[in-house]
Amino acid sequence: MATLPLHVALTGYSASPQGELLVAGQPLGALAAEAGRTPFYAYSRALVDARIASLRAALAGQVDLHYAVKANPYPPLLAHLAAQVDGLDVASGGELQLALATGLPATRISFAGPGKTDAELAAAIAAGITINCESAGELQRLAAAADSLGRPARVALRVNPDFELRGAGMKMGGGARPFGIDAEQVPALLAGLASLPVEFTGFHIFCGSQNLHAGRLVESQARSLELALRLATHAPVPPTLINIGGGFGIPYFPGDKPLALEPVADSLCTLAATLAGKLPSARLAIELGRYLVGEAGLYVCRVIDRKVSRGRVFLVTDGGLHHHLAASGNFGQVLRRNYPVLIGNRVGQQPEEETTVVGPLCTPLDLLADRMMLPRAEPGDLVVVFQSGAYGFSASPLRFLGHPEPVELLV
Ligand SMILES: Cc1ncc(COP(=O)(O)O)c(C=O)c1O
Questions:
Q1: By three-state DSSP, how is residue 353 classified?
Q2: Residue 140 pLDDT > 60, yes or no?
Q3: Domain count, the chain
Q4: Do residues 348 and 254 share a domain?
Q5: DSSP annotation of 44
């Protein structure tokens, strides 16, 4: 069995004795044949299932697990996830339709995000899902939509807390934010709910994402619950769901350590017990995106050309920034770093040259690997980008320069 670099091996892939990457036991070449062309994304059911099983075991039935559809809305993958999670969180009318199409009951779907249009609010009310309300203005528009539809809206208030998630790659709570209602404004809005055509379900607090520090997650989750309990004393009826977000990160870059799940899960179980004691009507929920699917996905493209420019080796591939903006370093990275990359048909061969892997776009931003030590690769070889199951296909400018879209496969 050929050896994979440690940070890749951790995600559960292996390779054949001939050095071909195996994904869920299938050789990469067979997957390329199934896709019919390159580039393609492949998402492994087995790796998603293993991740969910480990979370479920750690949470011991005490905490509900929601999936944030934005991480990867590929319908076959979404259907696979919907059968295993307690809820789906959507961020647009389009995602709402995808979530409803999985057959999950509407009561287990929630919709968060600033700038929901009147049409989206009406569709959400008509479907009977929970709307995580982001502002006083949105609450007014929601109430008007509920009035004209003649049915109450199920509403949770998304709270912008008065603290930040330390260590998060992307902060979405604390300070001045477009997301959620400032905690200090919430009591007054709760007091007004009784006169509106809404059914209050609880609170949603999402502080940030891509956090690999267990201690900081534990701290922010404890503070989120504390805040929800404090606000619940102002609610017109006892909440039934307290969603304290997630933010569980995955290791993308050399030196990143996987999140230590046990302390985070133990603390969540303790918080669930606290909640059960203080608000027996309410369940505790977390919502995770990349942690469920990020490590289960690969992006695969083919080397079209190998060239040496003034001593520097370039592999020019048929994939790039237009398919995988995040791996190019242009989706939220401050200093560009390489995602884990392999030549998928040369696993185990010695890295022998410093190689830069680029795409076909006429921009220096179109990089998949910058000056990475790789085995010598040739046209026809397959470049594999790991940690690509979240914020890949759907988070990329697919139409830029008019190249074909990548194929997606659930394997
Ligand atoms: C409200 C909300 N929930 C969930 C997520 C998913 O985050 P992640 O994929 O890092 O788990 C995000 C990410 O931006 C979000 O804004």
A1: strand
A2: yes
A3: 2
A4: no
A5: -
